[in-house]
Amino acid sequence: MKAVWKTTLEGAMDESLLAVDLYNQPRQPRSLEGFYVHMHLAWLYLLHAEFKREGVDIRYKYPNGRLKKIDGEPKTWDLKKSIAYKWPEINPVRANLEITIAIRNKIEHRYHEAVAALTAGYAHSLLINFEDELTSCFGAKYSLGDQMRFPIYVGYISALSTARRESLVEDLPVNTRDFLAQLKSGIDDSIANDLHLEFRVTLVQTVGSSGAADRALNFIRESDLTKEQRNVLSSLGKTGAVVVREQNRPVSGAGMMRPAVVAREVQRQIPFRFTTNDCVKAWRKLNCRPGTGNQHPERTIEKYCVYDEPHGDYVYTAAFIAKIVKETSTEDKYRTFLGKAPKPKVEPVS
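Above: the chain sequence. Below: its structure as tokens.
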């Protein structure tokens, strides 16, 4: 018999694929609203699948402990409650979800195309964050990457299409324009430019021959560009990632992190101090690797940790960070997980 969380997870994946189908059909009535509705359902099911697998009770209860019910069935957490349990208040993934919920509730159908253009970065991050959460918690076999394609389109490529977009934005009611402009006004500065909040991209056409192994699209972070490349990007009036063609090169240990990086990233995402010593406590708590000197250092939980044989030490995954963040996002969770009282952040981990 299939575990309940697996059924819920399959529902999450189905909802996300339906959402993308709708988003890529701009002539479909209410396609933008449909995208947000189904993506938020996908997120709700995904978080519920996580909670169910981990034994978290997601049922609403009255103060006396009795279950709240709807049509005889226990009422379970809504998306707002699930988000608050999953992430600390200052977190780019949480902020993206909260902003897109606000967008969904504000969409005016007469101005569908303009709103879609102005909020595309939030929509893209909503999907990318979903894929990251899905694969980091349940493994690469659940990835949606092989079921989606970069859409074929001509919008915003020609000068006429750009003028059309600008005209649509100008026709927006003042209150709608103000609402969209103020979406990020209350966002903490530490996450305001995080791509998990809003994904922005510039498409750069490339020329030249290509081999069978070349990818048509390759995403490169702005921080990885040279000073000259950033100056060119700035002259375009854009920020974010750049899509360029690049030669494929094998990378050993791509995406893996050492304890200092883990500590810095965890501390960035939680409201408390987190050090490399806490990283040691975390891997011991999760029992995801052997202790120092063990005869079989390779016996790790690969989801969280891998033994780096050439260097004789261990490297950690994004899933390891996500797990720690989840277990230390509140004072009570931090105390239970690390066995000590949390301290406020004073300065970044060096």
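The first helix runs from residue 4 to 23.
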